[in-house]
Amino acid sequence: MTAIGLLNEKSLHSALKHWYARPGDLLECPLDGYIVDILRGDHVFEIQTGNFGSIRRKMRDLSCRHRVTLIYPVAQERWIVQVPRTLPGVIMRRKSPRRQTVNQLFEELVTFPDLLNCPNFSIEVVSIQEEQWRRYDRRERGKRRTWRIVERRLLSVLERIVFDTPSDLWQLIPPALPDPFDTSHLASVLGHSRWFAQKIAYCLRQSGVIKPIGKKGNSVVYSRLLPIADRQITGSPSAMVPAPNDVPSNYIDEGLDSISQGA
User: How far apart are CA 140 and CA 60, in angstroms?
Assistant: First the structure.
């Protein structure tokens, strides 16, 4: 069986699991050869605080037979706690100027963007306040100062956004995006780098809400697709969406080939 293991469970993961749990839920429950965080009837809730790549197979397998909600936290507000090298010492706490947004989802969704087409699968992005505990690590040489993240602690839950279908991803894209568009337009309206915009375009394309219609120089030009009719949840294996095939080379935007290989 595949499990995170309670002995290795991190503070943030444990806190979110108990925040979402309701009376009667089963925690750390074996199911189809895996250990799921929360099982509510036939509804699986899986909390992932890190890379989606480590749960790719698990999400695809479980979505064939069960309703699955993947919970992904982003730190809208973060406090940095620096633990002194030796005790006793002064613990320093400060607010980080960096803020994660819900758009952070695209960084991980490149692993399985097509899975949003599965009627049994959804993603819930939860914006949180957290403390990030860091300890000075002098084992790494060649650097004046190295602080290693040792723990993330949940302070509060601020907001939850659910993505049930691929068309729900449009709520993360400003309406000012023209149609048709390329990744330079996407980067401009979002205020992000071109590289991040390429990841977003990859997710939108593989989930089926945009399609390539041509090229302008080295950039692929995309157009929106009309939303598919509302889906109904099923428990049959046919509800599973197969992994997408490789994109034709003449429609690969710069940098997107490496994204698809990494996903």
Answer: 38
Question: pLDDT tier at 137 (50, 70, 90 boundaries)?
Answer: low
pTM of the model: 0.78
Hunting for tokens 């004046």 — which residue is that?
A: 144
Q: Is the dihedral of CA 162, 14, 129, 103 positive or negative?
A: negative
Contact 100, 134 (CB under 8 A): no
Residue among 7, 20, 14 at smallest CA distance from 49:
14
> For the chain, percent helix, then strand, then coil, each to nearest 5?
30, 35, 35
Q: What is the dihedral of CA 198, 196, 56, 125, to 10 degrees?
A: -120
- What is the residue whose two structure tokens read 């960096």? 98
Q: DSSP string spanning 9-37?
A: --HHHHHHHHHH--TT-EEEEEETTEEEE
Q: In terms of pLDDT, which residue wins out, 231 or 64?
A: 64
Place of tokens 């993360």: 172
How far, in Å, are 13, 32, 66, 119, 154 from residue 236 at the CA level?
Answer: 30, 15, 9, 10, 36
Task: Please tell me the distance from the alpha carbon of residue 78 to that of residue 128, in angstroms, as a whole number.
Answer: 8
Instruction: Give CA–CA dist 244/117, Å, rounded.
Output: 11
